[in-house]
Amino acid sequence: MDQSSIDALRAQDIAPRGHFINGHSQDGETGARHQVLSPINGQPLALIAEGTPADVDMAVRAARDSFVDGRWSRMAPAGRKKVLLKLADLIEARALELAVLGVRDNGTEITMAYKAEALSAAATFRYYAEAIDKIYGQIAPTSGDVLGLVHHAPVGVVGAIVPWNFPLMIGSWKIAPALAAGNSVVLKPAESASLSLLKIAELAAEAGVPDGVFNVVTGSGSVVGEALALSMDVDIMVFTGSGTTGRRLLEYSARSNLKRCYLELGGKSPNIVFADAPDLAEAAKVSAAGIFRNSGQVCVAGSRLLVQQEIYEDFVTEISRHAEGFRVGDPLDLNSQIGAVHSLPELQANLDFVTKAEAEGAERRTGGNRILTETGGYYMAPTVMANVKETDTLFQNEVFGPVLAVTPFADEDEALRLANATVYGLAGGVWTSNLSRAHRMVAGIRAGVVHVNTYGGADLTVPLGGVRQSGNGHDKSLHAIEKYFDLKTAWIKL
Ligand code: NAD
């Protein structure tokens, strides 16, 4: 990855994009398009098809037809594996192009997008491709006069809705296991970040995914997303996004065909630093990256920092120093450590959180303001708000921006109580040298993942999912593929 290659890619015009249905780019029922703005400079970037319920119906029909005739669903797992491995190779070969395209509409710093978006998408397709011919059914322990076979049957048509942060990474966490398991998929990306996933659909066709098996319908959540989730012919929904939309999906399911909904939602994850942390300087550095990278637009961001009283002042000073040290700027500049906030409404919402936190008595230690306004882009200074109380809005609500809430605690009991004092349960972190305490905290924090003496690391081998109002179900790991199968029993009289 070098700056001149990035600059050459960013200079390319982006042609208007249609939906990808039944193996082809299509304009859709009305031919209407919406304008996508680039968070890098606030300028018009691309025109994307504005989908309608009829477009969703067309995509669902294509998916159902492809599923029923077995062109993919009944292909030998080794055949699907071959195609998906080819797709992984194509993604890897075009990784920089995909990463730059994605950054142009979502604003993530390129160093992160290249690895966490493009290369991670390739790795995800490879992982589930490799898995699919190693999953066996079962023979039940019945009496000898019958044979009970338990099959893994693909569920049918999978509806997937994903957000604008990490569209490629999150999208592939859903598309790859769904396709590997033999399903057909209709995907709705975020209206403001569809470009890289539309490209994946083209690459999937090039790799040999048959027509109709993987479809993308672009457009708004309230029209395209709602129509998909209300469809009587979609068998399961897999979703990543806000709790508000997650609730709606459950309603749509109840109003339609009771489809199962797997929800990966928001968080307000506690990152707890005890005075006996093995290396407080390291804790401050990693904790700063754990909230501020990608401008805080990371679902597992450690957005609530809980610090033991005796080190509180020094630690707040240290993490504020790190916050001020980040180079925020053009996400396609290799020197930028933090890129843009995704959109103007998101930026305004972040600033409003800071204003409200101050009104509620929190102390702004650094940041809290829009920066680089002259670029026309959406940038915010990494922000540290100290002395945030349990009852404060900033303690309880997800910002999804570069705003850290810091709260002191006295002892382990209070740390654990504060950690669990929100409705969320996505992630957490504990910094301590005390092994017993580390285990107690891992057991006690209500979250899908708890980091110990680090924050934010993970790979494909471990599941990611929330508890409580952070959702249900998991992406990643072999566990994630289970939801894309129904268990089907054959009961055979011998
Ligand atoms: P969002 O819920 O507004 O949008 C997510 C997707 O849902 C978009 O594609 C959107 O168009 C669609 N949508 C919106 N309204 C809809 C409706 N009525 N019916 C159907 N679909 C609809 O969320 P966002 O702002 O794009 O994403 C940020 C949120 O995602 C944050 O809360 C973040 O924590 C969460 N997130 C969670 C994870 C995780 O793994 N748990 C990962 C990334 C992001």
From TrEMBL:
The active site is at E264. InterPro entries: Ald_DH/histidinol_DH (IPR016161), Ald_DH_C (IPR016163), Ald_DH_CS_CYS (IPR016160), Ald_DH_CS_GLU (IPR029510), Ald_DH_N (IPR016162), Aldehyde_DH_dom (IPR015590). Keywords: Oxidoreductase. Gene3D superfamilies: Aldehyde Dehydrogenase, Chain A, domain 1, Aldehyde Dehydrogenase, Chain A, domain 2. One of its GO terms (molecular function) is aldehyde dehydrogenase [NAD(P)+] activity. SUPFAM superfamilies: ALDH-like. The keyword Oxidoreductase applies. Signal peptide: none annotated. Residues 32-489 form the Aldehyde dehydrogenase domain. This is Aldehyde dehydrogenase family protein. The keyword Transport does not apply. Belongs to the aldehyde dehydrogenase family. It comes from the Bacteria.
